[in-house]
Amino acid sequence: MSENQGRVWNLSKHLKKYLLAYTIAFIISAILIGHYEAAFVSRIPKLLFTDIVMVIAIATVYPSMIQLRGEALGQAFRQWKSLLLSLVYVFALAPLMAYALAPTIGNKGIGLGFMVVNVVPAGSASVGYVLIAEGSIELATALAILGLVVAIPAIPMYLSFYGKSTSMSVPISPIMSSILYILVLPLVLGQATRVALRNSGGREFVEKEAAPYLSASTIISLFALVFVLVMKEANFLINKPYIVAAIITYQTIIILTTLSVSIVFSKALGISYKDHQAIAFTSTSKNQSVAAAIAMMALNPATAVVPALIPMIQPVLAMAYIYFDGPLKKYLGEGRNELKKLVA
What we know:
Elements: H1 3-17, H2 19-36, H3 38-42, H4 46-67, H5 80-101, H6 108-117, H7 124-132, H8 137-165, H9 172-201, H10 203-209, H11 211-232, H12 234-239, H13 241-269, H14 273-284, H15 288-298, H16 305-309, H17 314-322, H18 325-331, H19 339-343
């Protein structure tokens, strides 16, 4: 490993370790700047702001699509129980809970944004959590890619249904366009890039040498996305703190409920600890960059506030869940491990 690669690798590990702290710092900075420079922020044309969000979102999503091991997709079809459970959690359980909770937030636009963040597929962070928890990386990757494919028709369907039930106008055509730009195109280009990199540098190059660069760029782009979205709606967040509290509380309920249900069914169906962790993290770790881009391009800026806030709670619950690996392994019949040495 070269000196430059070593620095990037250390940066990537540092950003992952302090993801929550940096996220909160960017949110606080964005609120302060957005509040005290409200006149300047308000003069930014909506179309320009949407373009900025789209560029940053694509910069966040594209590297993660390169890291997804598309060649592992076939393994999902040999593990039908894991496949079925993941689809149920991602596209039935979470959306239904969001559908019940969203109208109680007190703002229709924010409620729609809350619905958006719970119908998007897993982000690349889910595979990282599975790696730390010593779960099945192959299954997690396959489930993440499968979730992306199923999300293409599922997102407009759920948002349309929610819009009708709450008497809101939800434009399907812009939603489909945003899915094409932020989900389909990066997935195709990312996997094409992965194949090209593997052909030129081999699998080791993609999995080891390029990985820290891709991870660091994804996290930095995520920070930029959170900053821009929060800055735009800073005064709204200051004036409506109860809505912020509701978003964080409700998302916590959805994540914890999904994790609890997944544990029960994994035990009942005899799913191993490794496969369970792949299912659990790909079912609860949502791609907020995709949600933000859909909200900005197809809906309105206020809707995008929700995916900007979710990174405050999602990593916390994920890491807390990882620390219960000992009892979980015992419950699922796989003994103990040395995980805490890895994350210490």
